[in-house]
Design goal:
The complex is a heterodimer of chains A (113) and B (114). With 113 residues, chain A is mainly β. Chain A has no helices and 11 strands. Helices cover 0% and strands 56% of the residues of chain B. In chain B, the strands form 2 sheets. In chain B, strands 2, 4, 5, 9, 10 and 11 form a 6-stranded mixed β-sheet that branches. A 5-stranded antiparallel β-sheet of chain B has the order 1-3-8-7-6, with no helix packed on it. Chain B is globular, with a radius of gyration of 14 Å. Classes of the chains: A mainly beta (113), B mainly beta (114). Chains A and B meet through strand 5 and strand 10 of A and loops of B.
């Protein structure tokens, strides 16, 4: 069992650049979550997909953020254009159903200079 | 408005002693509570949970206590081991349409000294 896979693990980019974070959920899981962790706000849910469909994107901070799930084994979180305040650790998690235990990936540490 | 609060950013205990991590919540709609453990450079991993219909749940060295009237839960680790050193997150989930959503506290860094 490979667990949830995220790439890249670290990303350093300049303000204004586009950033794409990637996630491969655990095979068979039908729920996928993107979280952001910052010192100020802790871990907060950005968006939730169920069966590849976005169900709740109320946590997406701005229109600069977008997420897709083209199939059951892949999701992306894109920030365009990126800003220094987007610097954080971004986690992807997956679960079997709404109530299932959420398994987190190792996270992507994003630094925007 | 922080609905789940972990007021102690850090805690240090001696190996073999009890570790008690605390968590308070404000939303009375929360009915399921979880603790996650996180090592550096890894994602959080599920540790133990408790439903609001219970006041205690035990799993080996880990016990979670829930006091609904006080809107307070605690995680007890006994005996504490150096490998328990990690950040512990309290999380809560409500019933109803958004029952998939976990609301997390900011975490408590536990250090267990040999």
């Amino acid at each position: 069992d490979a667990g949830v896979i995220q790439s890249p693990r670290h990303e350093v980019t300049e303000m204004g650049q586009e950033v794409t974070l990637r996630c491969k959920p655990i095979s068979g899981h039908n729920s996928l979550f993107w979280y952001r962790q910052t010192m100020m706000r802790g871990l907060e849910l950005l968006i939730y997909f169920n069966n590849n469909v976005p169900i709740d994107d109320s946590g997406m901070p701005e229109d600069r953020f977008s997420a897709k799930m083209p199939n059951a084994s892949f999701s992306t979180l894109k920030i365009q254009p990126s800003e220094p305040r987007d610097s954080a650790v971004y986690f992807c998690a997956s679960s079997l159903g709404d109530f299932g235990e959420q398994y987190f990936g190792p996270g992507t540490r994003l630094t925007v200079t | 408005d922080q609905q789940v609060k972990q007021n102690s950013p850090s805690l240090s205990v001696q190996e073999g002693r009890i570790s008690i991590l605390n968590c308070d919540y404000t939303n009375s709609m929360f009915d399921y509570f979880l603790w996650y453990k996180k090592y550096p450079a890894e994602g959080p991993t599920f540790l133990i949970s408790i439903s609001s219909i219970k006041d205690k749940n035990e799993d080996g060295r880990f016990t979670v206590f829930l006091n609904k009237s006080a809107k307070h839960l605690s995680l007890h680790i006994v005996p504490s081991q150096p490998g328990d050193s990690a950040v512990y997150f309290c999380a809560a989930r409500g019933s109803g349409g958004s029952n998939y959503k976990l609301t997390f506290g900011k975490g408590t860094l536990l250090t267990v000294n040999p």
